[in-house]
Structure formats: structure tokens, C-alpha cells
Amino acid sequence: MRCAGIDIGSCTIKLAVLENGKLVLSRTSVTSHNPLETARDLMDGAVFDVITATGYGRHLIKGHLACPAISEITAFVLGARFFPDRCGSILDIGGQDTKAISLDNEGNLCKFEMNDRCAAGTGRFLEVMATQLGFTLEEFSAAALSAKRAEKINSMCTVFAESEVVSLITQGAKRNEVALGIHKAIVSRSAGLLKRVAPPRGKIFFAGGVAMNDCVRILLENEMGRPVVVPPDPQIVGAIGAALSASEDA
Amino acid sequence: MSDYTKMWESLGLDLKGHDALLSVLGNAYSDIFLSQKNRPEGMKYFDFVMSEVHGLRIKELMDAKAQGRNVIGSYCVFVPEELVLAVDGVAVGLCAGAEFNFEGAETLLPRNTCSLIKSAFGFKLGKVCPYLEACDIVVGENTCDGKKKAYEILAPLVKDLYIMDLPQTKSEMGKALLKEEYRRFIAKLEKVSGKKVTAASLKKAVEIVNAKRKAVKRLAAIRAADPAPISGLDALLVNQVFFHDDPARFTDSVNKLCDELELRVKKGTGVFPKGTTRVVVSGCPMAVPNWKVPVLIESSKAVIVGEESCVGERGTRWLTEVKGNTVDELLDAITDRYFNIDCAVFTPNPSRVDYVKEMTKKLHAQGVIHYSLQFCQPYIMESGPFEKELETSGIPTLRLETDYSQEDAGQLKTRIEAFVERLKKK
After folding, report:
1. What domains sit in chain A, N to C, each tagged with a CATH number?
2. pLDDT for A13
3. Model-level pTM greater than 0.80?
4. What pLDDT digit, counting tens, does each position of B51-64 carry?
């Protein structure tokens, strides 16, 4: 039996297919203005028996494809179990939201928190800031890591932080120090969410696109004083969780 | 439907804005309420009330006024309906639940004001609320700072704004203050109506309001059944209509609805399948047409089985003991009754969370959703310790903070679905 999960996120759409407990197919594509079309392209040629949807677009696809939908929270809880490390919490920083989840000893959902309505401190925030400083996302993380000190970024609002960055640059601040400041801001916010949901125990499973950023991972480990585990492809975790849910239901 | 245009005009309503509001309200109502499956027959009365919410009911108010009766509006469950009825007045709730004319409201209020207050101003400035325009007295009460200061701004805009002070602690002094305020309110009502509050008129008023509360308490108790005999949305609607319908007719209609629901329980039928995840909603009041969060919950494979809110059990769970033969003795009983209300403006306010625990148990709910309006400091502040206390007692709790807009519906839906999934796993 081949079980698929599709995670329709705000920035990217992910497809995962599992067979006999192994990940046999994994695809990622940019969401675009037409997520339904993108999802169709992504599934084109993929072979599976059952599929479950998750992500903010999960209800969008429901009308077009007979499949159940689960929330991203449940998808990440299930997805994290696919990987060998047993963790106490999950942090997912996606394109437009951040989720902090605490787990019990069996890996079940205990409690979760999400950022409020705006995309403050999410992947979108990092993207905008990188562009503002003239970095690609890879350069951005490396530049931040090379800084000896950080400029303080006070605002978490993408629009306000952008003007803060502009004013720092015009005051002659170093680009890599501003970059570190931005990374610190995002980490301090995420750490706040994690502390609200969980007693400080166990490893932190870090997923979502932002988990590919080394600087965020290192700063998070320091801030929380707990090991941070990043799976090989942190973006696919939600889709894997949805696939596992499909296999449970099948 | 009759043509009420003349009546609305005579009340000074802005007909264009009012039409727009009614059309949005009507559409929302049919999408949200009429589309539900397996609704009890008894809800037809409430559908009718809602279809005539600015029509027939307003005509009744105008007829009452023509007979020399006064219409008294208020924004809070601390304002005793009994006292209004004791001078043969009509009490109406004025709280508003729609994002209407917020730009207008923001010309007078700070942007960081809760939706409930902004909505009241939006309705006033947009001239679209016939209830407000029909009022002889509008009672403003000192609960939260937002409302307290907003009434200062509202005063010049309405005919007769009367301010009622309220205590903030459950102390003897607090109770004395409440009784004094009620006594002062009686004097005001007597002056405006030209009628005297007597022991007999007050006793009769207490009985009318008690009967109304008993009926909604009966409805609340029936909801303990699984499958749920009525949706949370419909039960909320009954609690909303509580605030502006004729009390005797309302009581009768709720009791008829309850007869039908009891039959459903006996037969084991309901609106959602047996075993559907059950939640209690607790927090800020939801005034018509604020159905946003209940819609999201009940479209996420869960049913709301109780509301701990002013529009819900906080407003109705206590009856007034009918004791005493003088106005003063009866006023003591009324004060005792209202002094129980565990609004978050009180400090400390432990009975609220205790009661939510009790509700969760007796209604067989699996979890609690705490609903705060953005910028509602008392409830948001209380929600932290509230959540901790419930979680420690083994009751999963989800805290939501939102307003009347729809922009966060997607995010709220994700949280609510995840919470329901968490409850199912238990």
C-alpha cells in the first residue's frame, strides 16, 4: 500500500509518498497564485492508493480530490514520529506561521501555540529581510553566523522591521551584524512560544523551511539549552505526517 | 414582511446603511443557521424572531412606548431587568456583534478598542440600531475601563445616558455599593416613568425574570445529552434572543423547544452523531450577529455543549430568591443574586474557573475553548491562569483571541481543528 500526504503551505506545497514505512517519493514546489494547479502538477505521475491533505490549503483541495484533511499540528506530530529521535517538543517555522508543540512520552500532542494572525517572525519575515540586505537565503544565514555582535532589531512586524533595517543601514551598521540581529529576533520569539507550551525537557524537533537555516538552529539550541534535531528535509515533515495519517485510516 | 420603513424613518435610522446591515445579517443567518441539519422544530420561533429583529419587535417597543411604557437599554448583565419590569418598562440588550462602521467608531475611539465597544459606536454613529434609538434611558455600567471611558464619549450622543457604578471585589462593601446603585437606579426609573416600584410590582418582575432564566437553565441542562439534541449555534441564538424578546413569550418558546429536545434525548436523536467531540466555550460575550467562533468550531467536527459567558450561563445561572415583603427586602434578594455574577472585572474571580470545571463535568465536555475579544483586558488577563488551572485539572484548554473581522478565520480554523484532534485522541 502506498500512502501519500500533501501539505499545501503558504509558500511551498509538499508531497510525500510512503510504502512499507519508507519514504519513496518526495516533491516540493512553490505554491504560486494557483495552489490547486500546483498541487495537481506535483501529484502528476505519483502513484499512491490513499492520500490525506494538510496545510493552510487543505480544505481547498478537499472539494477536488476525495481525501480527508488534518490540521498541520496533527500532521507535524505524526510526521515527527517518522524520524528516529524521540523529542519533547516540535517547532515548525513555516512561510506564514510558527507552531510550537509539546509532546508526551509516547509522542502524542499535549499542547500547542501558534503565532497570532500576522506573519511576524516567520519564514516570510526572514525572506523579506534577506532581500532587504541583498542576500540570498543561504548567504543570509552564513553572514549572520560570521558576525561577532548583533544589532538589536526591536520589531517583529515585517513592515516595521524593514524600516528599522533601512535606518540601521543608513546609520552605517554592518550588514552581517544586522543579519544576526534579525536571526536573534526570530529565535527569541520562537523560543517564547516553545516555553509557553512545554516543560523544558527532551530534544526539540525543528521542522519547516526555516529549519534549513543553520544560524536559526544554532541560536535556538543556545537559547533553549536543549538539543535541536533537524530532519534531513525539514520541509517535508508535514506531508509525511499526512501520509502516515492516510495509512492509519486505510 | 410588513413595510417598516416609516417606523425606521421616525426613529431617525439611516435607511441605506440599515438596509445594507439587514441584508448582510439576513444572508449570514441563512448561511449559518438555516443550513444546519436536523434542527429542532422549536427553532422556527427563533428564526421568526430573527427575521423580524428590526421589524415586529421594534413595532412592539413603539406600541409599548405609545402606551406610556419606557424602553430601557443596557450593555451588561449587571443591570437588573427586574427593576425595569417593576415600573412596567421594557428592557433591551444593546450589545452589538457586527463589524459595522468601525471607521466611524474610530473617529471617536482609539483603534485598540475591543470590537464590542467599537460595534456599539459603529451602530450609533451609523444610525442603524432601532433598539438604541427607541430607548428612553441607556444604562452604561462601570465594568471594564474600555466601557467606562467609552460611556463618557457616548453620553452626548444618546438621549439619556445613565451611569451605574459597579463594585470590583466580592466584599461586604462591594455588595453594599451594588445595592445602593440598584436603589439609585430605581429612583431614576421611577422619575422617568412616573411609576412607583412596589413590593407587589417587584415581586411580579422577579417571577417573570426567574421564569425566563429557568427556561434557559432547562435548555442548558438538556445539552448534557449525547448525541447533542441542539447545536451550540442554535443554543447561543436562544441566549442572544434572551436580551431583546418579550420575556413571557420567550419563556414559553424556550420551554416548548425544551419539550421537543427532551423527546429527542429520550429517542436518542440529535444534531450531530453520538460521540462527536464536545466543548464548552468560555469568555467574552457574543452579541448578535457574532457567530464567528461557534461556526468555526461546529464546522470542525465538534459541538458546543455550553457557554460560560454573559450571553450564556454567567448571565442566567442564578435565580433570584423570592423572599421578603418590602421593596427593600426584595432588593436585598436581587442584590444577592446579581452579586454572584463572576465577571472578570472582579478581583479575584475564582468562582468562574470553578464553574467551568463543573460545567465540563456535567455536560460531558472533553475540552474548553477560551474566547477573548482582542483588547478585552479583564478576560485576556484572566485567560492565562484560567488555562493553567484547567490544564492542571486535566481539562485541555485552547485560548483564542480574536475580533469581529474574518481575516484570521483560517488561522483560527487550524487551531480549532488541531484542538479537536487533540481531544479525539484522549
Report:
1. 1-83+234-250 (3.30.420.40), 85-230 (3.30.420.40)
2. 95
3. yes
4. 999 999 999 999 99
Joined grid coordinates for residue A211: 529549519
Domain CATH for B15 = 3.40.50.11890
Domain limits for position B153: 5-198+319-334
Whether B411 and A117 lie within 8 Å, measured CB to CB: yes
d(CA B415, CA B25): 26
Considering only alpha carbons, which residue of chain A is nearest residue B407? A117
| Cα(A147)–Cα(A174) distance, integer angstroms | 9
Are B243 and B278 within 8 A, CB to CB? no
Q: What is the pLDDT of residue B297?
A: 98
Distance between A11 CA and the closest CA of chain B, angstroms: 15
Predicted confidence (pLDDT) per residue in A155-189, tens digit: 878 888 888 999 999 999 999 999 999 999 999 99
Residue B339 forms part of a structural domain: no
Facing B417 at nearest CB: one of A71, A97, A117: A71
Q: Are residues B30 and B97 in the same domain?
A: yes
Same domain, B152 and B253: no
As a whole number of angstroms, the distance between CA B103 and CA B280 comes to: 34
Q: Do A97 and B411 touch (CB under 8 A)?
A: yes
Q: Give the residue from A23, A63, A68 showing the smallest Cα distance to A46.
A: A23
Would the pLDDT of A119 be above 80? no
Whether B122 and B156 map to the same domain: the answer is yes
Confidence of residue B87 (pLDDT cuts 50, 70, 90): very high
- Total number of domains in chain B: 2
Q: Can you tell me the ipTM of this complex?
A: 0.87
Q: Which of residues 369-398 of B touch A (CB under 8 A)?
A: 391, 396
Residues B106 and B180 occupy one common structural domain: yes
Give the residue on A whose Cα is nearest the Cα of B417. A71
Which chain A residues touch B if contact means CB-CB below 8 Å?
56, 59, 70-74, 97, 108-109, 111-112, 114, 116-117
Task: Check A109 against B421: CB less than 8 A apart.
Answer: yes
Q: What is the enclosing helix (H) or strand (E) of B51?
A: helix B43-51
What b-and-e string marks burial along B173-200, b requiring 16 or more CB atoms within 10 Å of the CB? eebebbbebbeebbebbeebbebebebe
